[in-house]
């Protein structure tokens, strides 16, 4: 089994920054991608950013230029640096790890952007 644990969420003012972390534990084989999703009340879960095992990144248009995804392969940890936060970024953020066999999800961490 693989467990993903997110941390770093909280309350910030508009224009502020947060860094989310997601640490994986368990046995993981082969190549795997990691990603961040988010879900706000009344909305469907949306993909925020992805990073492959080779380090290739992709971002949703809404966060391009503001968010940066990175990973530490030795620690099997993925990060999401969020800058210039907007109220629209308020959501529960979920970490995801996936390969050809299956996907794993974290429990989510709340990010609230408000003055």
Number of helical segments with 4 or more residues: 0
Helix/strand class: mainly beta
- Summarize the main sheet: 7 strands, mixed
Mean pLDDT: 95
Morphology call:
globular
Distance between the termini: 40 Å
Which percent band covers the strand fraction? Answer: over 45%
C-alpha-based Rg, rounded: 14 Å
Number of strands: 11
* Range of helix content: under 10%
SSE order, one letter for each helix or strand: EEEEEEEEEEE
Spans where pLDDT lies below 50 across 5 or more residues: none
Helix/strand layout:
Elements: E1 2-7, E2 10-12, E3 18-26, E4 33-39, E5 46-51, E6 57-59, E7 67-72, E8 77-82, E9 91-98, E10 103-105, E11 109-113
Parallel strand pairs: 2-11
Antiparallel strand pairs: 1-3, 3-8, 4-5, 4-9, 5-6, 7-8, 9-10, 9-11
Please, could you describe this protein's structure?
Helices cover 0% and strands 54% of the residues. Strands 2, 4, 5, 6, 9, 10 and 11 form a seven-stranded mixed sheet that branches. The termini are far apart. The mean pLDDT is 95. The protein has no helices and eleven strands. The protein is mainly β and 115 residues long. The protein has strands at 2-7, 10-12, 18-26, 33-39, 46-51, 57-59, 67-72, 77-82, 91-98, 103-105, 109-113.
